[in-house]
């Protein structure tokens, strides 16, 4: 099997920098692809956390002026990942979240920051690093969306390009005057078949228009985003490009998410020791100040608090939760109003409702191991990862029938509902409550979930096939 070299481009990579599922995918996929004859290196920005972890990285190139200040390209590795790092301090040496200020506002120069990342990706694609000339450049989300555009407008021989959508809601929209400032031809910002997007430009739109192949993170979401509503302004473009669009389900890192070896949970267990979950439930109840009731259906939520995630609908379903004697353990952050409402609900129902605002990796693992059911009531969900972890940990998923949730959970492994309304969510919670008290039926749901393959094993093979077919269609020297 001829090896394929792929340059992945991502704005965050687990376990180095993470704000969402993109980081999990960018961190797990390269490792999974090693077994499929794919050599993948990942390009990411030199945020402070990255620079600390790669202090001994090798310098490959240095520029006195890279998009307005000195910059370097580094090569190093961390936790099994081979990395290129774009070290441009005036763009990336900022504390906290990679995308927003401490006040939650987008950095005003995000267009330049991520254009710089895409520009160096294209240069690597053209052979900047002689030791690693990629056959394919794989761009993740809008932050890398200009990589296919630079390669397209540069002209001449180039590698194949793949654009992956992790969430259509984030499109990287900017004023069209930015195009010239970041080294793209000005006409590209006026071209409906280029960057132009409702009078401005969109980095995501550029990638979707100009990449050779488009993927997203589940088959159902690939179908949904071709609609006007699901496509969020880009449905028509995706319908035009349906022939090169495919949905490949995400997986999870089953070494990190393994209840038999997990260092973050109170008691480790497997399919044959499901009774040990009760000890994790007790530990979770104790940690969050919930009443120590083994007979209460304990619901878990690990989520960004947002309209997309349907967490307002869960608040509307509180009468069902409280009326059926359930408990709720929530971990998340996001919309300030939702944060306040959940904290207020927790204060009003001590021992029944717990809300931890923020993110705590260890607590996330304990919620998966200790909650009886995990709720994901999203209005739309490209794939979702928490329900995959739930299946792995014996927490029965309760999910809306959208996107990747519909592709990964069914009535043999959990509870689904649709359309996405508070009434339908409440009905699903009622069904779960009734079934929970039938120990045999609940155990069957858990065992079916534990038997589900949620790893990257087969998903990585689909990416490998995509890359090989793309290389073959273009010819290695195209």
TrEMBL record:
The chemistry this enzyme catalyses reads:
[(1->4)-alpha-D-glucosyl](n) + ADP-alpha-D-glucose = [(1->4)-alpha-D-glucosyl](n+1) + ADP + H(+)
Q: Which family does it belong to?
A: Belongs to the glycosyltransferase 1 family. Bacterial/plant glycogen synthase subfamily.
Keywords attached to this Swiss-Prot or TrEMBL record, sorted alphabetically, are: Glycogen biosynthesis, Glycosyltransferase, Transferase
Keyword Transferase among UniProt keywords = yes
Starch synthase catalytic domain boundaries: 5-240
**Which Enzyme Commission numbers does its entry carry?**
2.4.1.21
Known function: Synthesizes alpha-1,4-glucan chains using ADP-glucose.
Q: Which GO terms describe its molecular function?
A: alpha-1,4-glucan glucosyltransferase (ADP-glucose donor) activity; alpha-1,4-glucan glucosyltransferase (UDP-glucose donor) activity
GO cellular component terms, A-Z: cytosol
Pathway(s) annotated for this protein in UniProt: Glycan biosynthesis; glycogen biosynthesis
Q: Which residue numbers delimit the Glycosyl transferase family domain?
A: 295-429
Q: Name one Pfam family in it.
A: Glycos_transf_1
GO BP term, example: glycogen biosynthetic process
Give me the residues that bind ADP-alpha-D-glucose, please: 18
Organism source for this protein? Answer: Bradyrhizobium cytisi
Q: InterPro entries per the record?
A: Glyco_trans_1, GS/SS, Starch_synth_cat_dom
Q: Per its UniProt entry, which superkingdom is the organism in?
A: Bacteria
Protein name as it appears in the record = Glycogen synthase
């Amino acid at each position: 099997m001829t090896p394929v070299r792929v340059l992945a481009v991502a704005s965050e990579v687990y376990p180095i920098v993470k704000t969402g599922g993109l980081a999990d995918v960018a961190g797990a996929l390269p490792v999974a692809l090693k077994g499929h004859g794919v050599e993948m290196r990942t390009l990411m920005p030199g945020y402070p956390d990255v620079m600390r972890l790669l202090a001994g990285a090798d310098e490959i190139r240095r520029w006195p002026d890279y998009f307005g200040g000195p910059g370097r390209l580094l090569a190093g590795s961390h936790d099994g990942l081979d990395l290129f790092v774009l070290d441009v301090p005036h763009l990336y040496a900022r504390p906290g979240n990679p995308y927003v200020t401490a006040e939650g506002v987008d950095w005003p120069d995000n267009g330049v920051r991520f254009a710089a990342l895409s520009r160096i990706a294209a240069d690597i694609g053209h052979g900047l690093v002689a030791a690693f000339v990629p056959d394919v450049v794989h761009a993740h989300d809008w932050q890398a969306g200009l990589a296919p555009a630079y390669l397209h407008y540069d002209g001449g021989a180039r590698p194949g390009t793949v654009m992956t959508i992790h969430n259509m809601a984030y499109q990287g929209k900017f004023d069209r005057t930015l195009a010239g400032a970041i080294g793209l031809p000005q006409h590209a910002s006026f071209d409906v078949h280029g960057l132009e997007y409702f009078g401005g430009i969109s980095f995501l739109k550029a990638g979707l228009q100009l990449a050779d192949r488009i993927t997203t993170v589940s088959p159902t979401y690939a179908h949904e985003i071709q609609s006007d509503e699901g496509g969020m302004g880009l449905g028509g473009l995706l319908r035009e490009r349906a022939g090169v669009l495919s949905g490949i389900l995400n997986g999870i890192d089953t070494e990190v998410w393994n209840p038999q070896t997990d260092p973050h949970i109170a008691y480790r267990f497997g399919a044959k020791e499901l009774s040990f979950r009760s000890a994790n439930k007790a530990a979770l109840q104790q940690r969050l100040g919930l009443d120590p009731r083994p007979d209460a259906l304990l619901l878990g939520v690990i989520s960004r608090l947002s309209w997309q995630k349907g967490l307002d609908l869960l608040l509307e379903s509180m009468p069902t939760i409280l009326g059926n004697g359930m408990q709720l353990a929530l971990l998340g952050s996001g919309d300030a109003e939702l944060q306040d409402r959940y904290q207020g609900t927790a204060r009003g129902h001590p021992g029944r409702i717990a809300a931890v605002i923020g993110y705590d990796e260890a607590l996330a693992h304990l919620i998966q191991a200790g909650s009886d059911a995990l709720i994901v009531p999203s209005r739309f969900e490209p794939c979702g990862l928490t329900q995959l972890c739930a299946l792995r940990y014996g927490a029965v998923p309760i999910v809306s029938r959208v996107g990747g949730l519909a592709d990964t959970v069914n009535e043999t492994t959990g509870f689904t509902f649709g359309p996405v309304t508070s009434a339908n969510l409440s009905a699903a919670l009622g069904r779960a409550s009734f079934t929970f008290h039938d120990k045999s039926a609940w155990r069957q749901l858990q065992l079916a979930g534990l038997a589900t393959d949620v790893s990257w094993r087969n998903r990585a093979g689909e990416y490998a096939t995509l890359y090989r077919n793309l290389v073959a269609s273009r010819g290695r020297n195209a």
